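Could you join me in thinking about how sequence relates to backbone shape in a protein? Would you write everything just below, so we can both look at the same thing?
***
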Amino acid sequence: MGNYFSIIIGIIYLIGVFIIPKWRQKKVNQDWKFFELLWFSICFIIYVIFLEVQLHTYYFLIPSSFLLIFLFSYFKEKRRLANGLLFNLFLIVGMTYLGSLLVRTMNPLLIVLAGITSVFLLLLLLIGLYALLVFLYWNAIVVMRKEGHSLANLLTLLLAIGLTVFLIFNYYSDKVLPQWASLLFGILPLSMFYFSIVFYNFLTISIIYQFNQPKYNKDFIIVLGSGLIDGKTVPPLLGKRIEKAIQFYKAQSNATLNPPKILMSGGKGDDEHIAESLAMKNYALEKGIPEEDILVETNSKNTLENMKFSKEIMEQDFGGTDFRALFTTNNFHLFRAGLFAKMANLKADGIGARTAFYFLPNAFLREFIAIVMMHKRRHLIVCGLIAVMMILFALAEFFLVTSR
């Protein structure tokens, strides 16, 4: 019976794989990748539960409970950094569970998946850090060629140089430094390990947040501003934000005949001739958006003010606070913008415009640094505890050696 069920679930899965893209083509939003991933997850979970039922065990309830905790937290409030941690806990527990199930069943599908995962993890352990270094140097060169040499564009290069120096020093430290000094040096790798976990959780929730599927029932779309070229022209990065809003505007209009208003948000910088929002409005007008469907917010200087001032304009235009809003920005900035919306008490999620791949590593590093600074007190406490612990170990080692 197990073989028959495996064949049946496999056939059902393959049918869904072919049907989903065709089904999405008939929708206003034709994106199908999220639904393919969801379909695979559903079929795999059903298959795993079937294997458990055959064994007359119910250990699948353990990872399922972690998944439910994550889903409850995420759908209650998507804009939480803790959601990344909860999802990764689910992954760890789920992988452990699947390993246990593999040992108990020796299922061919699980063996194949375990083999692929093992090869990936082995490669990650053997060459992961060195491959990361090569990628960071390559990416830094590409970014500098295409975007210039500003400090914001040098983050991947600075990270690559820092990791290189760390690896070299770490290799020679045991040979040069006494044991107690090596323990003091251990403050750095432990702090780096901590921040790598924080970054991984941030990256996880940032990616998950990209899968927002907003309903076509919005009253407003906020477009978050950024700098202008020569103080008056919309740059490509900002243009993509506006075009993402226009895409949703047209999709909702086609689906409901009731398009939302587009609210351009951005003030006038010191080096700009006009407010960003006015340049953004002109851009949208050239794309055929009616002027009566465009609002402008001209006072904000940063993303938090974008959200606060836009909220005031929407409340005034709508005549109340029960409006439904959405915001658009570039995909790398999406989650942090959501945090600012939460800080402004604005109930709105976002959709992200695509960004060129070469720009993403540098952009996500910039976003991560900004996120760390938003919670710097928490991170200083953790790093302080790490430093105190290693100093105590170093002192114990030092006095132990001198007392011999």
User: Anything to note?
Assistant: The chain has three domains: 2-118, 130-209+376-404, 220-355. Residues 64 and 312 are 42 Å apart (CA to CA). The first helix runs from residue 2 to 25.
